[in-house]
Amino acid sequence: MKRMRYLFFLMTTMLFACCSSDSETKAETPASTPTPGSTKTLVAYYSYTGDSRAITNEVSGQLKCDVVEITPQDKTQKYEANNYAGGNKLLNDIKAGNYPAIDPVNVNFSNYDNIIIVTPLWHSQMAAIMQTFLHNNASAMAHKQVVLIVSSHSSGISGVVSDAKRLLPDVSWMGDALWINNSNRSNTASLVRDWLGGLNFKNSNMETKNMNITIDGTTLSVVLDDNAATRELAEALKQGAITYNADDYGGFEKVGALGRSLTTNNQQITTQAGDVVLYNGNQIVLFYGSNSWSYTRLGRIQYDSLDQLKSFLKAGQGRVSVTLSLPGTTAINQARHSYTDGEAFYSLNGQRVEHPSHGVYIKKGKKVIL
Question: So what's the pLDDT on residue 4?
């Protein structure tokens, strides 16, 4: 009986040891072997307090990617001790050309098109440990698309951005750095989501990553997400531009029926101005405000200011004709045309229109704008 109790105790102890984890969970997948269908994006992060790790967890939860943690070789240093004397020493050593040692990083950079760097800020500079990683791998990261997320208490991040550009002189920066600090940290999920939506990713899964929206002769670009709906939409647009009518709803969106159904991947989200989503499988919603609902994300309109976006979407001004097209194609195949009574015009779905107003129509087999 004692022997049986001992065996039970031993098995329980082993099971507990196998199933337990560190107090700070790592969001890692093997960086050297991307999973099939990967978007070929790597997230490399260094975290001392756990804040950068939490940001990385959020990124990896929203984006298909591989993750690698950068760790110092010396695990005993307390960088914050004596008013950050230890951290400042490492930063000063770097200025003299001496980078602190880090653990070996097993990354085959040829597997990746996009690299996201997540790092804390030390006294207005990039954390020394991350500087070593970038210094050691600058040549391997050359010609990659790179972007930066910086975690700080309250200090601005311009010094960290300068460090990144100094250490990686031959990369392409695919967007502005994201700054997460104590005043906005509680909104990390939405900050990451909106920031990712505006990045110019290379994407191995999707041949077409941009779409044009034309309203009343003005065109803005949309950076598309990569999902079943956007791939289906892109394939449809390869056959020609799609035009539909959209109306204001709720004081925050233009919505209209696409004329076809796309595969949905609905999630409960809070949209922001510029978001383009699919509602009910067959309606396109263009936001100039915000709303919380279950949508399938399609992409994000690239615009300079909210006033510009509202003017482009004719916010609050009623029905508009929206034309979707791919870059490099022409949404309209004919010049602008003045209407004369007696001419035969047809809507884009083939119905004759006796007295057409402003919009896109078919005349003698060609598209025209009135």
Answer: 47
Mean pLDDT for the chain?
Answer: 81
Q: Three-state secondary structure along the chain?
A: CHHHHHHHHHHHHHHHHHHCCCCCCCCCECCCCCCCCCCCEEEEECCCCCHHHHHHHHHHHHCCCEEEECCECCCCCCCCHHHHHHHHHHHHHHHCCCCCCECCCCCCHHHCCEEEEEEEEECCEECHHHHHHHHHHCCCCCCCEEEEEEECCCCCCHHHHHHHHHHCCCCEECCCCEEECCCCHHHHHHHHHHHHHCCCCCCCCCCCCEEEEEECCEEEEEEECCCHHHHHHHHHHHCCCEEEEEEEECCCEEEEECCCCCCCCCEEEECCCCEEEEECCCEEEEECCCCEEEEEEEEEECCCCHHHHHHHHCCCCCCEEEEEECCCCCCCCCCECCCCCCCCEECCCCCEECCCCCCEEEECCEEEEC
The tens digit of pLDDT for each residue in 105-157 reads: 988 888 888 999 999 999 889 999 999 999 999 989 988 899 999 999 998 99
Per-residue pLDDT tens digits for 261-281: 999 988 888 899 999 999 999
